């Protein structure tokens, strides 16, 4: 047993288990049947209305009072429009039309491309795309293709329409200042509320505003200039601009990475300087300690490295005297000069 069959049986069981206190309420029963039908409708799209309608001589149009109380049949409500680029505003209007009465069969009429382009303007989606979009809206039971711009009595009878749902703004035509005027006079009009902030014109305006961005994106995806209806020069200009923007982004990324690297280097440098400062302080302390230890051997060291040191001339002057007689045979200067002379003489003897 598949899911749909299981769901149908479940709904049938619920119908058989209706509480006794509800059996006397006709509107409650109608609402129950309507809810069950809506549940089942979620598992499949709506259907297309027969092109020639349905001839039913027994059809009697409901009044609003009868439909509101829950008639023996669903109220057939008709909502027409263009439905280009189907969006949430369209869906909310159809939701309102579906909920005008407790038990509603919603039909949606959609004008074809020829009529729409002549009376309103160019559409983004073609008629088949618009039909298909509305066909899959959860609130819709039936889609009427090639819908007329103005609803005459013949069309209303052919499709057995009880009521017409639309927003209450007047829509002018060549023959009338409001195409729904006669519908309102018959008491068949049900007003819906427009959703502020969303419309097909708003969506198209956003696209036009960011036109270059979408052109670049589609060119990058492989669309040709012909597909996008742009000339050769514009295509190349956009390609150059795209390259420039790409380089800017790369440079920006490089700049961010450079800042990050410089920041890490600065942090590392501060760390190294702090460590060097600590080590230098330690070095100075060690040197001072070493110098203090060597100070007691100062006399012996000076005697060893300065054998020609002159002794103090008086008892009052105890400081060492490191002056030398550079002409003395014992002075370091004399020793150096004498060594250089001997080396020169040896080199002369070898040459002879």
The N- to C-terminal Cα distance equals: 127 Å
What percentage of amino acids are in beta strands?
5-15%
Could you describe the largest sheet, including whether it forms a barrel?
6 strands, parallel
Number of helices: 13
Report the mean per-residue pLDDT as an integer: 77
Structural class: alpha/beta
Strand order of the largest sheet: 1-4-3-2-5-6
Q: Looking at the structure, what is the overall shape?
A: elongated
Number of strands: 6
How do the SSEs run, as a string of H and E? HHEHEHEHHEHEHEHHHHH
Rg, please? 51 Å
Proportion in helices: 40-55%
* Uncertain regions spanning at least 5 consecutive residues: 6-26, 322-328
Structure notes:
This protein has 352 residues and is of the alpha/beta class. Helix content is 53%, strand content 8%. The chain is built from 13 helices and 6 strands. It has a 6-stranded parallel beta sheet with strand order 1-4-3-2-5-6. It is elongated and about 145 Å long. About 8% of the residues have low confidence.
Topology:
Layout: H1 3-16, H2 26-41, E1 47-48, H3 64-69, E2 75-81, H4 88-98, E3 104-110, H5 113-119, H6 127-135, E4 142-144, H7 153-158, E5 163-167, H8 181-185, E6 189-192, H9 200-209, H10 211-220, H11 232-294, H12 298-305, H13 332-351
Parallel strand pairs: 1-4, 2-3, 2-5, 3-4, 5-6
Helix pairs in contact: 1-2
Features:
352 residues, six-stranded parallel beta sheet, 53% helix, 8% strand, alpha/beta, elongated
Outline of this structure?
Helix content is about 55%, strand content about 10%. The chain is α/β, with parallel strands linked by helices.
